[in-house]
Amino acid sequence: MASRKLFSTRSVLCLKQSTRRISLSSYKCEEAVASQRDLRLSWDYAVEDAIKHVGYQSPFLKLGYMTTDKNVNWNKNIENLKNSGHPMYDTAKILLANGKANVNQMWGIVILLTSKLAGYPATNLWKEDDFDRNSGILKSQRKLAENVEFMTTGDDFHRDGVLNMQHFHKSGMNLDNDNLLIYGNKMAILAGDMLLGYASMEISKIRNYKVTALVAAFARDFAESTFIGDRDIQNNPLPSNPLEKLEVQKANPEIFEEVSSDQIDIMLPFKLHDVMGTAENEWKLRHTLGGASRLGKSCKAALILGKHDEEKQKEAYFIGKHMYLSYRAAKDLNIFRSDVLPASGKFSLISAPLLFHLEEDPSLYDEIRKGLESIDNINFAKIHEAVRNGPGMGKTRDLLSKNSLIAYTLLHKFPNSDCRRILENLMFSLES
After folding, report:
1. Where on the phi/psi map is residue 341: left (φ > 0), alpha (ψ -120 to 50), or beta?
2. DSSP run (H or E) holding 230
3. CA–CA gap between residue 304 and residue 142 (Å, rounded)
4. In the chain, what are the domain boundaries?
5. Which pLDDT value is given to residue 247?
6. Radius of gyration for the alpha carbons in the chain, expressed in angstroms and rounded
7. Which of 409, 429, 414, 428 is nearest to 113 (CA)?
8. What class, spelled out in words, does domain 9-431 have in CATH?
9. What are phi and psi of 414, to 5 degrees?
10. Mapping DSSP to helix (H, G, I), strand (E, B) and coil, where does residue 238 land?
């Protein structure tokens, strides 16, 4: 399958030392969008600014009405799981605390900002009723953003809220139907199905087959992300064994190079060959399938609805994709910036600093190997201490700079505007 890089990786790497200088010097003109102090905007402040600009109310306000229906009694059912140890309880609290969404809301905002950033070139094709009066954004684009958020949260329920009971006695088949573990699984599956079904129905009402095809493509990508690589019995992802890759690489050094996930035809499945076991390639593939594809394809779909040409659609796709990858790299860095473990005592074992560390120190994989049955058997404190003082941190900062630089470059292909300023501030908050 043909593939290409949108930008030369070597060029980006050469610029990585001066990424922040490039980012800052671009704004020293009269139209500068942010001062040095503004560049330290927190993520939350930047999100708040974005919400005000696009007038975005989380669709979870709608979900609030759905879940407070006396026939559903959502809150009571969730509280029944409080002391059960079922993952659905914590998942629901994180995703739907007080009727608000988690970071999933951010992606709906990015879709709307990208829509408004690009504008509406074919003004003669629109009627006044096609636009939201308060924000100046197409109603169809708003519907898309809201329901992408619903779909993302539905997938999160299925991924994080279901307890795999295969290792139980008789795989849990001997448990009563009213057992809380069975009950929690039913809630997680039905909650995810409800959100995915509702969102799919609403997106179909947009009546644009290209948009529907893009939504189907990112749903396929996400499904694929939950199967690739090694996993424990609860389907928690584990990094690939770096030693196996090193042996193959020693035998065939010429066939290994950075694999680009910036493909010519983004509707095709992503290339998996020669990826797993190579830190950056594996990280990019896992998180492109797991989220960057969704945001990128949604931004492209928004510009399809705005009647933009293919080139602008492609730029929107890569803005969304590389913003997501920048966010993931920043999130991975934050895990190891503190000398204290997260409150849960665990963290993602496919985070960028850990994958880069394994590439330099494969011996740490002996500890990860203990989690092949369950990640509960892994000494997370040992891994955390090794990684935060290892070479993976610097390489992850380079990874963040590389993806941020691509997103900045593409944003500057669009006219200077409040939308561009807000998207830039979101990116700056990740690097601060």
Report:
1. beta
2. strand 230-231
3. 13
4. 9-431
5. 64
6. 22
7. 414
8. mainly alpha
9. -105, 155
10. strand
Token duo for residue 310 = 């293919």
Q: What DSSP assignment string belongs to 367-384?
A: HHGGGGT-GGGS-HHHHH
Q: Are 311 and 319 in contact (CB under 8 A)?
A: no
What are the tens digits of pLDDT across the range 59-100? 655 565 555 555 556 777 888 888 888 888 888 877 765 444
Are residues 341 and 381 in contact, defined by beta-carbon separation less than 8 angstroms? Answer: yes
Q: How far apart are CA 429 and CA 232, in angstroms?
A: 34
Is residue 283 very low, low, confident or very high in pLDDT (cuts 50, 70, 90)?
Answer: very high
What's the predicted TM-score (pTM) here? 0.83
pLDDT at 251 (0 to 100): 60
Q: Under a CB-based contact definition with an 8 Å cutoff, are residues 424 and 33 in contact?
A: yes
List all residues 6 or more positions away from 71 whose beta carbon is below 8 Å from its beta carbon. none
Cβ burial 372-408 (10 Å sphere, 16+ → b, else e): eeebeebebeebbebbbebebbebbbbbbbbbbbbbb
In the prediction, which pLDDT does 242 show?
83
Tokens of 220: 């396929």
What's the rounded Cα separation, in Å, for the pair 64 and 325?
30
Phi/psi of residue 238, nearest 5 degrees = -120, 145
